[in-house]
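G., the chain you wanted modeled:
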Amino acid sequence: MFQLSDNTTLDNYILSKELMRLAGISPNAFRYWKDCIAIKYYKSRVVFLHKKYIHKKYIHLLQYCTNLEGYIQSAPFCRYTNLPHSHLTKSNNSKIYDLLNIKVVDGIKFVNLKKFLSSCGLDDNCTIYIEKCRYFAPLEKKIKLTNSLCLGYY
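Predicted structure as tokens:
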């Protein structure tokens, strides 16, 4: 089992839980597959499987799995951007919720990091953080996201 950094997107990976549900097998069945590549984020129990290393018996189910290209799990997104989890809940009426492309698969929330960065005009290598605009120094690089939140980058 490999561990991902908080800003690594899930390109070429699928949610293990979703595949196991579609296949009707145990959630831990992948552990017994030969050459299976499984990953997860730091402090997370959610497992992702590389599409090329799925057992040949279940390859046909990949077409039914959700495409996670450009997405990361919501908890790593919040750690990476310093954004409180409450902003990723629609009922909290956070203005930043509308700026993010959020997807829920089998009860697990994902945020499209690539789309968010490209909408801000930033590349994938940037280090970013989101805070209230009043906490930024005058010369810090920032992008105003909402009336009160700004994105800092370097």
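The radius of gyration is 17 Å.

Shout if anything looks off.
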